[in-house]
Amino acid sequence: MTSSDSIPAHRGRRHAKRRFQNFTDPLLPRGVEFIVPPPPEACSFIDKLLVYASSLIVVGSPIWFYGGIIYLFRRWKQYRFLATEEVANSEVDATKEQQGNQTQQILERNEHFKHMARKCAMTLATIILLSIWGPHRNKKLGDFLAVRKWRLWDAWLRYIGFTVLRDKGNDYNQVDETKALSIANASDPEFDIKTTQAIYAFVPHGIFPFALAFACLPEQGYSETWGLFRPVVATATKLFPLVRTLISWMDGVDASRSAVSRALSLANRADGTERRVGISPGGIAEMFETYPKSGFHRNDEAALLKHRNGIFKLALKHKLPIIPVYCFGATKMLRRVQLPEFMETLSRALKISLCLFFGKFGLPIPYRQKLMYVMGRAILPPSVAADALTGEQFDSSVQEMHDKFCDEIVRIFNNNKEYYGWGDKTLRII
User: Fold this and answer.
1) Does 115 score more than 60 pLDDT?
2) What is the pLDDT of residues 216-263, one digit of tens each?
3) Rounded to whole angstroms, how far apart are CA atoms 131 and 65?
C-alpha cells in the first residue's frame, strides 16, 4: 500500500464489494478472522469535509492555539502603546493650539484603545485559565454530550477504512512450547476480549496516535472489538488544551508509571473500565524511529520496544495479560520532515514531540490511509504472585513477557502484511 490518497483494494473493486458483504475473505491468512470488516459505505464528500475540518481543529490545535495566544498578546501590547501615545499627543496639542474638539477626539480614541486593550487582556486570561483548568474537562460532560456517538466518528471510520482482524495464531510455530504456555488465544471461551481486565498495547504510535485514538474514542471502535478501556497518554498532551479536553472525556490516564499503576488498581467502576487500559508502548520517541531518519528505508516499519519494559512490569505487578495489537497504516497518515538530531534529543528530554509534520495539501490533515488493526494472542503473566518473586526472578519474568510480546508483534505483522498490501515491508524492533 503505497498510495496515500486512496484506500487500495486487495484484488479489485469486485472482490472488495464481496468482502464487505460477506464479512469473509478467502485471502485472509490462516487463523485470521474479521472482527470488524471494512465499512460497506463509501467515504462521502461530507465525510471528507468533516474529517478535514476536525483535523485542522484538533491535529492543528498546537498551531492555531499558541498562534492565537501570541496574536492576542501582541494586540494587547499594541493597544496599550497606542493609548499611551494618544495621551502624550493630547497634552502637546492642548498646550500648542488649545483646540477643544481635536483634544476631545484624541481622548475618545484613547478610551477606545484602552477598552480594546482590556478586552484583549480579558480574552487572553480567559483562554489561558480554561486551558489550565475548567469544568468542561469533566468526564461526565463527555458522557452527557455522548461524545463517543458523534456522527463525526462515523465519517472518520469510513475515511480510514476502519478494519479489525483477530489473528488466533493457528499457524503459530515461531515460539517453543514453554513460551506457548504463557500465550493465550484471545478466542478461548474463558478469555472474553471485551471484558477481561488487561493492558492493550497498540503498535506503532505514529506521528499522531490515530491508532490508539480510534480504538477508544468512537463507540463503534471498541464496542465490537476489545471493549471499553482508558487510554494512556503522554503528559505533554496537557500543553494542547483541545486534545486534553477530548482525553478527559475519555477518562485518559497520564503516562507516568505511578498514574497507570493507580488506574490498574481501581475496581468496580460504573463504566466497566476497571483495570483496563490502552497504551502505545513506543511513545513519542517512536515517531522519530522511522524513515526519513538516517539508517531507515521507506519500506521499514519500526517498533520502539527493545528497551521498553515498563508495561511488562505493571502487567506482572497487577497480574494482567497484555494484548498486542498492530495497526497497519498508522505511520503513513502524516509525514515528517527530518530535523537536526538535537531536536529528537530535546523532545525526549522534554517528553514532547518537537517535529515538523504535514499531511494532505501540506496541512495537518491526514492522508486517506486504511487502518487495519490486527489483534494477536494475549501475553499472560506467570501464575506466581509478583510479591513472591525475588528481584532476580521478577526481572527474569518481565524479560520473558517482553520477549514474547516482541515475538507476537513480529508474528502478526509478518502474517498479515501481504494481505494489507505491504509484502515488501519489514518490521524492525529497536
Assistant:
1) yes
2) 999 888 888 999 999 999 887 877 888 888 999 999 999 988 999 999
3) 10
Q: Per residue in 158-189, pLDDT tens?
A: 999 999 999 988 644 444 433 433 555 544 54
394: pLDDT strictly greater than 60:
yes
For the question of whether the overall pTM of this predicted structure is more than 0.85, the answer is no
Are 373 and 164 spatial neighbours (Cβ–Cβ below 8 Å)? Answer: yes
How many Å apart are CA 69 and CA 32, to the nearest integer?
Answer: 50
Rounded distance between C-alpha atoms, residue 67 and residue 71, angstroms: 6
CA atoms within 13 A on the CB side of 171: 11
Residue 83 to residue 106: CA distance in whole angstroms: 10
Look up residue 353 and give its three cell numbers: 514531540
Q: Which residue is it, cell 524513515?
A: 291
Backbone angles phi, psi at 105, to 5 degrees: -65, -40
> How far is the C-alpha of 356 from the C-alpha of 104, rounded, in Å?
51
Q: Identify which of 7, 44, 60, 81 has the alpha carbon closest to the alpha carbon of residue 367.
A: 7
Mode of pairing for the β-strands spanning 230-233 and 277-279: parallel
pLDDT for the residue 182:
52
Length of the chain counted residue by residue:
430
Does residue 300 contact residue 429 with C-beta atoms inside 8 Å? no
**pLDDT at position 271:** 63
Q: Within its chain, how far is the Cα of 347 from the centroid?
A: 17
**Looking at residue 39, what DSSP letter applies?**
P
Q: Return the C-alpha cell found at 201.
A: 498495547
Backbone angles phi, psi at 84, to 5 degrees: -65, -40
Those residues whose C-beta lies under 8 Å from the C-beta of residue 53, and which sit 6 or more positions away, are none
pLDDT tens-digit map of 29-88: 989 999 999 988 889 999 999 999 999 999 888 888 889 999 999 999 998 888 777 555
